[in-house]
Write a structure and sequence with these properties.
Blueprint (H helix, E strand, L loop, with lengths): L1 E6 L5 E6 L2 H24 L25 H6 L2 E4 L4 E2 L4 E2 L5 E5 L2 E5 L2 H9 L6 E3 L6 E3 L4 E5 L5 E4 L2 H10 L3
Antiparallel strand pairs: 1-2, 3-10, 4-5, 6-7, 8-9, 10-11
Amino acid sequence: MKRRYFKQPNNEPIVVTVENPSGRIYKLLISILFLILASIILLSCSNQKKDKPETATLAVTKTKPIQMNSAVASQTTYEIVPNEKVCMVNDRFMGVKQIPIDVDGTIYFGCCQGCVEKLQKNIDNVRFGSNPIDDTKVDKANAVIVQDKSKGSVFYFASKQDAQSFISKNKA
């Protein structure tokens, strides 16, 4: 900051103060730099785990058709699959982990945001399936899930014993 004195015709001094703009610019730059560093530190120290979407790659190769007898083909038609790889709204085996949806401490799985809403609000009683052995109501979150490999659809069972019974019955 510089001060200059001037005399007026009536001999009263006038004081003019001239401020150096580079000092203000440096203070502003330092403030901006500090804010950038603080935001980087706050964002990088977040305790939240970043979810990376899982992707599935399907390699298709052209081969000659293999002829199998019907007994072997039907044995591989049904299998028990993990609940987290099933969209419980579409009742389809998806092959990759689905979105976990917590409803009052019970975890359901869906494939998209629409499924999340349907499961949370239990639209059309979507949280429950029907056991194909005895037609009883089964909570999908606690069910043993069997996939029909030929169609991609799934069945919900109250116990592993019911699921194994269904698979055995449908082998022949």
